[in-house]
């Protein structure tokens, strides 16, 4: 009787872990965490604006101007803006990876999403932190009624 040997398999049963950062894992974790934080920020935004205030009829230019003059609300809105845009951009990146078959198409689409997210984050952040409902030197007939006469 001869001994029977089993040949070694062609590939290991378990692949060796990759080196470096697992961006897909961190993207997945970010989507879950930012989703939870966004729910709190969005419903808090709606609650403070609509329930505690005068409702929808109380939201006008003066209300927004007053709200954006408060650093707490500036940071609240910027956090909401950043989280929502990065969350949406990451979701679009996932869709592009799933459905774009050509590497060049994937690269162009992901670059376009990244550019849009960066531009919107920069512009939105600038608006929140530089908003002035009563800019100095503006004609009085163009200023809202709550601005002091200059």
Description:
Keywords: Heme, Iron, Membrane, Metal-binding, Transmembrane, Transmembrane helix. It comes from Microterricola gilva. It is found in: Membrane. This is Succinate dehydrogenase / fumarate reductase membrane anchor subunit. One of its GO terms (molecular function) is metal ion binding. This protein is mainly α. The chain has a single domain, classed as Up-down Bundle (3 helical TM bundles of succinate and fumarate reductases). About 60% of the residues lie in helices and about 0% in strands. The chain is elongated and about 100 Å long. The relative contact order is 0.10. The mean pLDDT is about 85.
Q: Structural class, from secondary structure content?
A: mainly alpha
Q: What is the share of helical residues? A: 55-70%
What is the radius of gyration? 26 Å
Q: Which class in CATH terms?
A: Mainly Alpha
Count of strand segments: 0
Our measurement of the CA-to-CA distance between the termini, rounded to an integer number of angstroms, reads 108 Å
Order of helices and strands: HHHH
Give the percentage of residues in beta strands: under 5%
Report the average pLDDT across residues.
Answer: 87
Q: Please, how many domains? A: 1
Poorly predicted spans = none
Q: CATH superfamily, please?
A: Fumarate reductase/succinate dehydrogenase, transmembrane subunit
CATH architecture: Up-down Bundle
> Could you name the CATH topology?
3 helical TM bundles of succinate and fumarate reductases
Structural shape:
elongated
> How many DSSP H or I helices?
4
Largest sheet: none
Organism: Microterricola gilva
GO molecular function, one term: metal ion binding
Subcellular location: Membrane
InterPro entries: SQR/QFR_C/D, SuccDH_FuR_B_TM-su
């Amino acid at each position: 009787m001869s001994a029977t040997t089993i040949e070694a398999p062609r590939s290991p049963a378990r692949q060796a872990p990759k080196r470096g950062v697992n961006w897909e894992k961190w993207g997945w974790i970010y989507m879950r965490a930012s989703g939870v934080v966004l729910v709190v920020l969005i419903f808090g935004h709606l609650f403070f604006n609509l329930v505690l205030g005068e409702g929808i009829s109380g939201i006008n230019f003066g209300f927004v101007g007053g709200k954006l003059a408060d650093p707490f609300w500036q940071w609240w809105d910027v956090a909401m803006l950043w989280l929502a845009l990065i969350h949406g951009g990451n979701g679009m990146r996932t869709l592009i990876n799933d459905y774009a078959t050509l590497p060049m198409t994937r690269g162009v689409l992901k670059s376009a999403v990244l550019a849009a997210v960066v531009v919107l984050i920069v512009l939105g952040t600038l608006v929140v932190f530089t908003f002035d409902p009563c800019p100095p030197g503006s004609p009085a007939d163009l200023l809202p009624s709550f601005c002091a006469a200059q």
